[in-house]
Structure formats: structure tokens, C-alpha cells
Design brief:
heterodimer; A: alpha/beta; seven-stranded mixed sheet; globular; B: 980 residues; alpha/beta; five-stranded mixed sheet
Chain lengths: 322, 980
């Protein structure tokens, strides 16, 4: 790819519930500085276009084999030699069953806005809006600045989901003015574990968190992904709760773990790491871990300042209190 | 805006545990077994027989017939219901309307009590009365046969009888209307009688013109008919007093005395209290059914009509909320006191339907302001508690005027009942009606008829179920140059060209529109023929008296007396047709990924060996219900085309035809009769219902709702049904989101939406174990039904409807184990040993035994000869059976397709003559493929009319009533021969 990389969208999810208040549309961008072993959107990791093959939809018609100019699909239908594949998409166009799909599409801002504004009335009636997510959306700060500014101008509530690994100045200048809500992932309190399981340390992330806690406390909402046995441990959650409280942060939430990443890795030909747990967490377990995190946070908050009943309330999910 | 005086609009403090009367009545209602009631048919038939000679107009004669039935109707009181009056003489009765569809059950008189679906109890005595007295009178007089004879068995009627092109509602009913109860509660029937008398006096004196004569007779007819309704109430009152005198239970005695008081007052005089008003509404419903068949006679906006009485009583301290709820509940259960009399096969097309009296609540008033009141909430709560099939509940919602709390409450009731009410967007509905020339104030007062049709309540005679047209059959005619191979039809429509020769999509669209215009034109012609037959045979003075217009004009509704007139034409297979058009456009003419010839070949092979093409058509083509612009364009084009076509036709009553998109269960039945389609639907599969996107084709909820809402509702003045399924709505967050979703749909301009809140798993389990879900209520495509009552195809259709997860807005995957939920096949009842008890004559025994052997054999050779031989013999030996042909003169022609059999059966001089040749002018001609097919058609314990149609086994020409009679005699013989 020549020159500046275009931001690619790998999914647009409408009528989303877990990504901010109300009914929202979430735009998922490709590219991420982290490589979490439990990632449930592995197709978001690489910034480039990819081809996914969904085995269960394949009808074995060999149209893709015939269509591929690189002879990358010669090992049988859908089995792609990733070394040869240039992700040109000829096989996708040929596939009658949508078993092959492009992962990553560039939208000019205006086109994306049109697409997002189709659901405007759903946002309006539910106090919802648009969330940009990833991957790590802040990698595309310039593009997002244009997108979010236009959305704000049209009265749409905007949110971002970030892993926290971003360049602070760019974030402050380009994104912060156009965001109503910043969902900030806090994964692991231990720097060593963070490096081992996500590929990067957590120093910058925690500094960015502290900065936002001071700069935009009302818009910041830290979230902890609950990965069984990895992030969902007593030590990690208590550590995070304490750290958040220390920063004067008074609210946070948890994200349930989704084991869907494995199948997606297979579809795009990525090796599957042996770490991720296979099962979903029960709702009851999720409640317990969330309770533990919030209790620890409340305790830490209480130590820092005199309790205020109104603030106590705000320890609850931000989504009920936009 | 009326003040809401309820402490809790959810009325959660009231439930069936503390409302024992409603709990008890509901239980009785749910357990009730329907019975055929011949009371009305008998009175009406005898009266018309007696007045046949006098030379009076049909207006007067029909009014007298209605008057006679109402004045002589038995005054009955079942259970502890607070409302007096019953539709029939049974606790749960199916009245007979021989004028309309009442004759179609003639072949089933001996078996209707034990048939597999929609069993109806009928005593031998009543069956005899129908067979020997009532039906013979109507042989040539039913609406359909009258119209056939008069118009020389026209092409449109033969198309109708092929079932797959269109159905003509008027052969079975006009009904489908909303009368003006507000006015009659204020004046009383006596007031209208007086008004009629005044109008008659004002007619100019001197020699009468035919027009004046018509007016005079109309006013007289109104008086006569209404006096019948008044007389019925008087008899109820007298009987209630009598019963009270001997009643020991003090509560029951008090109730009887109250009913005696109430019926002494209403409906003759203006209602003074809430109880009087509610009972008056009920008595008027009964009265209307004396004249009009029990299909979708809808009471309308009861929360508005009854509100003044409620408010006054509550303010005076005469009525508590609990009492109001009990009375509303009693009315809801009373509205369930009757059911339809339909032949067993009709359930394929209209399965599980009740009589669909629609009640409408909420919305705005005539001034355009919020009309939601206490009664709105009371009616919603009663609906939530009773969960009965009828009344069909409809909630109007105006997003600028009605409070959000009302919308939330409606959402909550839908979640609780899994099905009702259906939701209507006031903004879209009102503008659709205004666009039809309805005054704004009147449009704002709209109410729902039956399934989903919009009515200007009490002011418009809409005949909303006049035509049901199958869009897919028009598409098939276009694909095959005017033919329809799946039912083997030869040239049906115009030759619009072989699509394989078309060079652009426009040519195909033109061909399709040509076929569509041909079918719709034929459907309209038939509707006009039938409408005129109604004018001649079934005037409706009683119903006319309850409308705005007829009294001023001096003209019956059926003659265009209403303030507004319309005829509704609904369409089956909308989304499948749109997706097929888009697939043709995209695959053949844009992508050029296949040729039209290849596509046609694949369709005719039902995609056998064309997996890649099938996959492409299913997953890569534009689908209605997504953001695809091609699909959106084709959908709007089709809607626009039909709108323009119908609006260009004015009916015999002076109203325009109005297109609509609701399907009852026709989309399942018609689907069975259709071949593979370009959208990837395989042959014989169900179509999508109403205006709903094809199941599993529109995976995201918001584009689905937007796509339907984007259709211009002004082009859908007859109403639409969007059927959505959500697996669950649980907890306050789900509810809020559900309610917001309805809000957004309305703001996008959607006209109607209704829900089934049921998961795939629940529905599959209910199919497997019907006994565990006796009361599971589902929305079909307009009306509600108990799931257990639906046929298997319709169950599957509801199961496979896309289920959208409210938490993700995406379609929930259909379980792979999908359709394996069939219950164990019912044991076919084996014929009992051949006890040939009736006739002891050896020859008869022998013939009977032969027939039984023939019935049990595979090939049924000589079945017809055996049947006719046996018939002849039994006529000789069995006096009872001979009664069937006393003074009966008719000629039947039976012909096999291959010409190897030609037999005439001539009934005359109380006997039967059989000739192996064509004789004279047959009343009915039966053409059959082979003997087995004929036998199956006449005698099968579960007649498969759709299957027989598909296999082209038996076709009929001529007067069907004769066939019904013959089939009855054949069936009776079979039962005699097998000793059952």
C-alpha cells in the first residue's frame, strides 16, 4: 500500500447495546497495537485488508479456485495460501454463498456518515448514538476527527472504545473535542502480565488513563474485560479498583468475555494461541466479579475523599446515566 | 386530553387471582367446545320461503327474515357473565349462513363432529334440518351460485376456483366493517326507528318512481330489522326476570335482575350507565350478526365510545375501576362466544382464525389531540389478563401526541401476552386515509377492521376483504409466458413473451405488470359480479342503520349508502415477489451471472443440481428488508403500481379499490401451490407473511424496520401486516428498548407492526407437544390464533420467521434441528368392521361390501360405478336415504381426464338414472384424473383440497352446491357401508 494507510472498517454493528448508552451503531476499525491472546475480534489486529473464509457456509463449488489470479486458492475451495493471497477479493466476488468475505473496507467519511445517519431516529428515541471501536480506533485520529466532528454537528452522541495506547497530544487535539464518552479498557494491573498477554506493557496506558481522569472525568468510563482466569482474578480486579479509586475515578464497568475469537482466527488463517478459555462466563459469575471490582473502587474512593451519596450512585454503569 | 385518574396505569393490583368472576368465565371460555347453531339459518330460510310469493322487494323480505330470527331467538343465559345476550343458541356456537359459505360444510354434516381440525359438534337432528330443509332452499340462491348463473359462469369465476390466482371475499362475506356505536348509544335504536319513519314521511307523495320506491323500502326495512333487535332485548329482559324469580343464589339473582333492567332499557333507548352502554354494544354486535356473517364485525374504538359513560359513572360514584374491568372482561369473553363455520380444508388458507372482531384503543381524537384515557388502560390490562384470541386488540399510537408512558404500557402488554396488541402509527394511517379523500377529523377517528385494515369508523363501508390476490402467481405467469406449470394450467394469462428472449429488466417488469393487471382486473370483475349479487340477495338494513350516510341518502350500505365507500384488495407473497424481481434484475441483467434460460431451467427443476445458483440467489441478491437500494426500489415500484391500478377502478358502490398487504394464513397455503422462485425459495415452501421481509433474508433489525417504514403508506390505504418475532423481552431494559424500537419505527413512517415474543425453542416445543401449550397465543398475519389450532405449514412459517435478538438487533440463527418438531402422526381411524346394519337386503349388503373393498384398495377401479350402483340400491331400500332425493332434480356429469369414463347421473322422479354418456345440461361437471383421485376427493377422511389442486386431480364446473349435496350423499353411504 502506498503512502498513508487508509483506515479500514471491518464491521458496522447496528442496534448495539454494549457500547454506550441507548441504541447505537458501532464502527469497528482495523489495526491494533496490542495482540491480546483472548481478543474476540482478531480480524481487527492487522490494519490491512484480509480475506475470511467461513467454512460452514462453503458449498464446495470451486468458483473461488477458478477466480483467484494468484493461484492462492488452489488447495481446495476456501483454503487460502495466505502467503500468496493479495486480498484482491476476486474469490469473494466469485463466491455464490458468501463463504468468502473481505475483511476491511475503506469508506470516505461522507459515505460512512450517510450510512450511520440512516439509524438517526433510533439514536434519537433512545438517547443513543455512534461508537467508534476497533482494533484501536485512535490509530486513525485524523479520519476520526472528521467523522466525529460531523456526527456531533448533526447532534449525534459519540463514543470511542480504546485500549488506551495512544499518543496523548493527538488524542487531545483531534478526538477529545468531539467525544461524549470514552470507554477505556483497563485489562491487567500487572505490567508483566500485561506485556506477556497483550504484547505490550501498561505504562503508557495507565498514564493516559490518569491524564483523562483529570482532563475529562465526566466522559471517562474505564472498563475491564472479564477473561476467566486471566483478567477475572481477585488480585487483578482489586488492583484495578484500587488504582481507579486512587485516580479519583468513580465509575467503571466490566465487559463479559466472548470466546468467538477462535473461529474468527481460523477464518482469516491466523494461528490460534493456546491461552484463551473456551467458554462464556455465566451471568452470575459476571455479576460477582463486577461487584468485586465496584466494591473495591468504592472503598478506594471513600479513602480518597468524603463520601457523597450522589457520587456513590454514579459507581454504577454509565449506560444508565448518560 | 382526558385526565388519567388511575393511580397505576398498569393496574397491577388487579389480576385474575382477585377477580374470580373473570377467572371463572375465562376458564369456561378456554375449555368450550364449539357447536354448530342452525337457529339463524332456520328462521331466515323459513321467513324467506314464506315471503317468496308476496312480490315484496328483497329489502323488505330480508328485513323480515332478520326480524323474525331476532324476535324468536331463544333468550339464553350461560354462566355468570354480566352481559345479557348470546350470538347463537350455544355457549360457543358457529352460526350457519347458507347465503354465503354455509353450504360448503354440507359434505361434512356427518363428520364435522369428529373431524381432525376445528371440530364442531352437530346433532343428527340439526344435520337433518340442514340437509333436508335449509340447504335445498339455497341451491340456486347462494351469492356465489346466483352470480355464476347471472353472469354465465365467467372466466373470473373459474380463475377464482383455481384458488392460486385470487380469492373473492364476497362469496363468503362482506362484513369486515366498523359500525357507529357512539351515535346509537346516544339515540337508542328507537331513535333510529323514529328517524326512519320521519324520513319515510318526508318522501314526496304521489306515484312512486323506482328510486323513491327503493328509498321507502329501505326506511321500512330499517324499522323492521331494528324492531327485531329491540324485541330480542325485551325477551332477554323478561327471561332474566323469570330466572331471577327462581334463582336461589343471591349473587346470581341480583345479576339476573340487573340484566333484566339493563335489557329493558338498551339498546332501544339511550344508554345511561357504563353497564348499559357495554351491554348495548354487545346486543348490537349480536343483532348485526343476524344479518351479516360473523367475520370481522369490529366494535372499533371502545375506549372512546364507552368513555363518557365510564367517566360519568366513576364521577358519580356509581362505578369502581374493578367493576369497569369486570364489565370489559365480560365483553371480551362474550366476543369469543361464536366462531366460524368453515369446511375442514379452509383452515389451510385461514387456519386458526376466530371471528376477528377488532377493538382499537389509544391514538388521537377528532381534534387531533391525545385520546388515551382510563379506559384505554383498563382495556389493555383486561387484554393482558385474559389473553384470549378475540377481540383482536389494536393500539393506535401518535408519537407527537400520546404520552411515552402509554407506549411503554403497550409494549409491556405485548411482552406479557407474547402477541397483542398490534401497533398502528397514527401519523401514517391518518395520512393514508386523508389521501383517500377522507375528511381530517374522520380520518383521525379511524379504527381497525378485522386483521389490520383501516376504517373510518361508522362512516365508511370498506369491504376490506374483497380480494386476496396472489402476487407470486402473477410472477409465475410472467416467467412462463402466461402459463403456470406447477398446477399444469394452460394459457391462463396473456402471452407476455418468453423471458429468455428479454434483453433488459424493463421488459420483464412489463411482462409481470401485464400479468398482474390481468389477474387484478379479473378479480375486480368477479368482485363486481358478487357485489351486485349481494345487492340483489342480501341487503343490510340493520347494519346500514348503524352508519353515517344511509339514513340521509335513503340507501342501503350495499347500494353505496355510506358516507365513504371502498373495496379492499390484499396481496399475498409480497416480499418473495419483490426479492424475485430483484434477483432477476441483478443476476440476469446486471451481474449477468446467469442467463434467463438457465434460471428458468433451474426453477423448473426446483434447483436440483444448481447448488451454486441457488446459493447465489439466496445470499448475494438484493433482499427486501436490507439497505439494498435495488430491493427498496422494486418494493416501492410494486406498491406504487398496484396503488395506481386499483385506484383507477371504482366499484359498484362508487368507492375506490384500496390495496393492502396482509395474508391471514394464505401465504402458507398459497406457498404450497407454488413452484420454485428466483429469490431461491424452493417449490411448495411458504411465502413471507403480510408485508414482512422473507424469513432469514433480512438479518438486521434496523434496516428491516426502515425498509418497511420507507414504503409510502399513502399507497397502502387498505393496511399492512409487518410480523416481527423477538425471542424474548425480559426485564426493564429490554422493555425500554422494545418500546423505543416501536417509537423509531413509527417515526420512520411505518404503518403497522405486530409481534410474537417467542423463541424458536418454545415454538418448536409447542409444535412437538401441543398439549403443553393449549393457550399459546400467536399473531398470524393480522389476527391472533392459538398455536395448536394452526396447520403444520403455518406452524412452520411462524417458527421459521426471522427472530431478532433485542440485545443485538441481529437475527438469531434458526436451530439446525429446525423443523423436526412434528408431532407423531395421528393414527388414521381404521374403519370399523362392516356392520351393514341399516339395510338388510342381500344385494345392498353385497354392493356395500364391494364399495368398502374398493375404498380399501389401492387402485379404486370402478369406484364411480360402484358408488352410483350402491346409491341407486339404497335409494330403493332405505327410506331415510331416499329423502335426499325427494323432488330433487339435477344432472351430474362425471368425466375422466383421459376420456375413458363419461357418466351422467340424473336425479328425477325420486330416483337415480345412470347413463354412460353426456346427458342434457349438467348442473355440475366433475372432471377427474383417475378413480382414486375422485374417491379421495369425495370420501377421504382428510380431504386434501390443496394437494388435489396441485396434482390437478379433480376440477369442477357449474353449481358447487350440487356437488356439496352429492358429496354429502356419498359420504353418508360410505359411513353406512362401513357401519360408522
Amino acid at each position: 500500500m502506498n503512502g498513508k494507510r487508509q483506515p479500514l472498517v471491518f464491521d458496522i454493528k447496528r442496534y448495539a447495546l454494549d457500547d454506550g448508552p441507548g441504541i447505537r451503531t458501532v464502527v469497528f476499525f482495523k489495526g491494533c497495537p496490542l495482540a491480546c491472546v483472548w481478543c474476540h475480534n482478531p480480524e481487527s489486529m492487522r490494519p490491512d485488508r484480509e480475506i475470511a473464509w467461513h467454512r460452514q457456509r462453503c458449498i464446495g463449488c470451486h468458483e473461488c479456485v477458478r477466480a483467484c489470479p494468484e493461484k492462492a486458492v488452489d488447495g481446495g475451495p476456501g483454503r487460502i495460501d495466505r502467503g500468496r493471497c493479495t486480498a484482491c477479493g476476486a474469490c469473494v466476488d466469485a463466491c455464490p454463498a458468501t463463504a468468502l468475505q473481505r475483511v476491511g473496507r475503506f469508506y470516505p467519511v461522507a459515505e460512512l456518515i450517510t450510512l450511520l445517519m440512516k439509524d438517526r431516529l433510533f439514536y434519537e428515541v433512545s438517547a443513543g448514538g455512534v461508537t467508534v471501536s476497533g482494533g484501536e480506533p485512535t490509530l486513525h485520529a485524523e479520519y476520526l476527527a472528521g467523522l466525529l466532528r460531523t456526527l456531533k454537528a448533526q447532534g449525534v452522541h459519540t463514543a470511542i472504545e480504546t485500549c488506551g495506547l495512544f499518543e496523548r497530544d493527538r488524542f487531545r487535539k483531534m478526538l477529545l473535542p468531539h467525544l461524549d464518552l470514552i470507554c477505556f479498557d483497563v485489562k491487567l494491573i500487572s505490567a508483566e502480565a500485561h506485556r506477556r498477554l497483550t504484547g505490550r506493557g501498561n505504562g503508557t496506558i495507565l498514564r493516559n488513563l490518569a491524564w483523562l481522569a483529570a482532563e475529562a472525568p465526566d466522559r471517562l468510563f474505564p472498563r475491564v474485560p472479564l477473561v476467566p482466569g486471566v483478567t477475572a482474578t481477585e488480585g487483578n480486579l482489586r488492583g484495578i479498583g484500587k488504582m481507579l479509586g486512587g485516580l479519583g475515578i468513580r465509575r467503571c464497568g466490566c465487559l463479559p468475555y466472548n470466546p468467538g475469537g477462535t473461529g474468527k482466527r481460523q477464518a482469516i488463517g491466523q494461528p490460534v494461541p493456546d491461552a484463551p478459555p473456551a467458554a462464556m462466563m455465566s451471568a452470575e459469575e459476571e455479576r460477582q466479579w463486577t461487584g468485586m471490582l465496584q466494591a473495591e473502587l468504592s472503598r478506594a474512593v471513600a479513602e480518597v475523599r468524603t463520601p457523597n451519596p450522589q457520587e456513590e450512585q454514579s459507581c454504577r454503569s454509565i449506560f444508565t446515566m448518560p | 386530553m382526558p385526565p388519567i385518574t388511575l393511580n397505576d396505569i398498569g393496574l397491577k393490583a388487579y389480576d385474575l387471582s382477585n377477580m374470580p368472576l373473570l377467572a371463572r368465565l375465562r376458564e369456561a371460555n378456554m375449555g368450550a367446545k364449539p357447536e354448530v347453531c342452525i337457529e339463524r339459518a332456520l328462521h331466515v330460510t323459513r321467513s324467506l320461503q314464506e315471503t317468496a310469493e308476496g312480490g315484496d322487494s328483497m329489502e323488505l323480505r330480508y328485513a323480515r327474515a332478520v326480524n323474525r330470527f331476532l324476535s324468536e331467538k331463544a333468550p339464553l343465559f350461560f354462566g355468570d357473565n354480566l352481559l345479557a345476550g348470546t350470538t347463537t343458541s350455544k355457549f360457543y356456537g358457529a352460526p350457519v349462513y347458507p347465503e354465503l359459505t354455509g353450504m360448503t360444510i354440507w359434505p361434512e354434516l356427518d363428520t364435522i363432529s369428529d373431524r381432525a381440525k376445528n371440530r364442531l359438534r352437530l346433532s343428527r337432528e340439526d344435520a337433518d334440518t340442514l340437509n333436508f330443509e335449509i340447504y335445498p332452499f339455497w341451491m340456486e340462491r347462494s351469492i356465489l351460485e346466483h352470480a355464476r348463473k347471472k353472469n354465465g359462469d365467467p372466466q373470473c369465476m373459474r380463475l377464482f376456483e383455481r384458488i392460486v390466482f385470487f380469492l373473492a371475499g364476497k362469496a363468503g362475506a362482506i362484513s369486515h366493517t366498523v359500525p357507529h356505536y357512539k351515535a346509537v348509544l346516544e339515540t337508542g335504536l328507537s331513535g333510529i326507528v323514529e328517524e326512519a319513519r320521519k324520513h319515510e314521511k318526508l318522501l314526496p307523495a304521489g306515484p312512486e318512481s323506482p328510486e323513491q320506491c327503493g328509498k321507502r323500502d329501505f326506511y321500512r326495512a330499517v324499522r323492521i330489522a331494528l324492531e327485531g333487535a329491540i324485541a330480542y332485548a325485551a325477551r332477554l329482559s323478561a327471561r332474566a326476570s323469570e330466572l331471577a324469580a327462581s334463582e336461589k343464589d343471591p349473587g346470581r339473582r341480583a345479576n339476573l335482575l340487573r340484566m333484566a333492567e339493563v335489557t329493558a332499557r338498551v339498546p332501544a333507548k339511550p344508554a345511561r350507565t357504563f353497564r348499559e352502554a357495554v351491554n348495548a354494544v354487545w346486543l348490537l354486535q349480536i343483532a348485526i350478526h343476524a344479518e351479516n356473517i360473523n367475520m370481522a364485525i369490529s366494535p372499533g374504538r371502545l375506549d372512546q365510545i364507552l368513555y363518557p359513560y365510564y367517566r360519568a359513572d366513576v364521577d358519580r360514584g356509581l362505578l369502581t375501576v374493578r367493576e369497569a374491568m369486570e364489565l370489559v372482561g365480560c365483553l371480551w369473553l362474550k366476543l369469543n362466544d361464536n366462531t366460524n363455520l368453515v369446511p375442514e380444508t379452509a383452515e389451510e388458507l385461514f387456519g386458526g382464525a376466530g371471528t376477528v372482531p377488532a377493538v382499537t384503543v389509544g391514538g388521537v381524537d377528532e381534534a387531533g389531540e391525545d385520546a388515551v384515557n382510563d379506559l384505554t388502560y383498563i382495556m389493555l390490562r383486561v387484554t393482558e389478563l385474559l389473553k384470549t384470541r378475540d377481540p383482536s386488540m389494536n393500539a393506535r399510537y401518535h408519537h407527537e401526541k400520546n404520552p411515552p408512558a402509554y407506549r411503554d404500557r403497550v409494549a409491556e402488554v405485548i411482552a406479557a401476552t407474547h402477541a397483542v396488541p398490534a401497533c398502528y402509527n397514527d401519523v401514517a394511517a391518518i395520512s393514508a386515509l386523508e389521501n383517500q379523500g377522507v375528511e381530517t377529523a374522520h380520518a383521525r377517528d379511524y379504527a381497525i377492521i378485522g386483521c389490520v385494515e383501516l376504517a373510518v369508523a361508522g362512516r365508511s363501508y370498506d369491504a376490506s376483504s374483497s380480494i386476496m390476490l396472489n402476487l407470486v402467481s402473477a410472477l409465475e405467469l410472467a416467467l412462463y409466458n402466461g402459463k403456470r406449470p406447477i398446477t399444469g394450467d394452460d394459457q391462463i394469462g396473456p402471452a407476455t413473451g418468453d423471458p429468455a428472449t428479454f434483453t433488459d429488466f424493463g421488459q420483464f417488469r412489463e411482462a409481470f405488470q401485464g400479468q398482474l393487471a390481468f389477474l387484478a382486473g379479473e378479480a375486480i370483475t368477479l368482485n363486481e359480479d358478487l357485489g351486485r349479487a349481494h345487492q340483489e340477495l342480501m341487503p343490510t338494513p340493520l347494519l346500514s342503520a348503524l352508519f353515517d350516510g344511509p339514513m340521509e341518502k335513503g340507501a342501503d350500505l350495499i347500494r353505496g349508502g355510506a358516507r365513504y365507500n371502498a373495496s379492499g384488495a390484499t396481496h399475498i407473497g409480497f416480499a418473495d415477489t419483490v426479492d424475485s424481481l430483484s434477483a432477476i434484475q441483478q443476476a440476469v441483467f446486471t451481474d449477468r451471472s446467469c442467463t434467463f434460460a438457465d434460471l428458468l431451467q433451474a426453477l423448473q427443476n426446483d434447483f436440483e443440481g444448481a447448488d451454486a445458483l441457488l446459493a447465489r440467489l439466496r445470499s448475494r441478491m438484493p433482499k427486501f428488508g436490507t439497505d439494498d437500494p435495488v430491493a427498496a426500489r422494486n418494493a416501492q415500484d410494486l406498491i406504487g403500481f398496484l396503488y395506481d391500478f386499483y385506484q383507477g377502478h371504482t366499484s359498484y358502490r362508487g368507492g375506490k379499490y384500496r390495496p393492502a398487504y396482509w395474508t391471514m394464513t394464505n401465504h402458507a397455503g398459497q406457498g404450497k401451490l407454488s413452484g420454485a422462485l428466483p429469490n431461491g425459495r424452493k417449490a411448495h415452501q411458504v411465502f413471507a407473511s403480510g408485508i414482512t421481509p422473507v424469513s432469514q433474508a433480512a438479518g438486521d433489525l434496523t434496516p428491516c424496520l426502515r425498509a418497511v417504514a420507507a414504503l409510502d403508506s399513502r399507497h397502502i390505504p387498505g393496511g399492512e401486516a409487518l410480523n416481527l418475532k423477538l425471542p424474548a423481552v425480559s426485564g426493564p431494559e429490554d422493555l425500554a428498548r422494545f418500546s423505543q424500537t416501536i417509537e423509531a419505527y413509527c417515526r420512520y413512517g411505518g404503518l403497522h407492526v405486530q409481534f410474537n415474543i417467542l423463541s424458536y425453542e418454545t415454538l418448536l416445543d409447542a409444535k412437538r407437544h401441543p398439549e403443553r401449550y393449549p393457550e399459546l397465543l400467536v399473531r398470524v398475519s393480522g389476527y391472533s390464533a392459538y398455536f395448536k389450532d394452526l396447520n403444520e405449514a403455518m406452524k412452520d412459517e411462524i417458527i421459521t420467521r426471522t427472530a431478532y435478538d433485542l440485545r443485538t438487533g441481529r437475527a438469531v440463527p434458526l436451530p439446525a434441528a429446525g423443523m423436526d418438531g412434528s408431532p407423531a402422526p395421528e393414527e388414521e381411524q381404521a374403519p370399523s368392521p362392516h356392520a351393514w346394519a341399516l339395510a338388510e337386503h342381500a344385494v345392498v349388503q353385497l354392493a356395500g361390501r364391494k364399495l368398502v373393498e374398493c375404498l380399501e384398495s389401492e387402485f379404486a377401479e370402478g369406484f364411480l360405478a360402484l358408488l352410483l350402483d350402491l346409491m341407486k340400491l339404497v335409494f330403493l331400500f332405505d327410506h331415510d336415504f331416499r329423502r335426499n332425493i325427494q323432488d330433487f332434480a339435477a344432472t351430474y356429469l362425471f368425466r375422466s381426464l383421459d376420456g375413458s369414463i363419461t357418466v351422467s347421473a340424473i336425479f328425477r322422479d325420486n330416483g337415480l338414472e345412470v347413463r354412460e354418456e353426456e346427458a342434457g345440461d349438467p348442473n355440475v361437471t366433475v372432471t377427474f384424473k383417475d378413480s382414486k383421485a375422485l374417491m379421495g376427493y369425495l370420501l377421504s377422511p382428510k380431504p386434501d383440497v390443496l394437494g388435489s389442486m396441485l396434482r390437478q386431480e379433480v376440477t369442477l364446473a357449474g353449481n358447487l352446491n350440487y356437488l356439496y349435496k352429492f358429496a354429502f350423499m356419498a359420504k353418508r353411504l360410505q359411513l353406512m357401508a362401513t357401519g360408522r
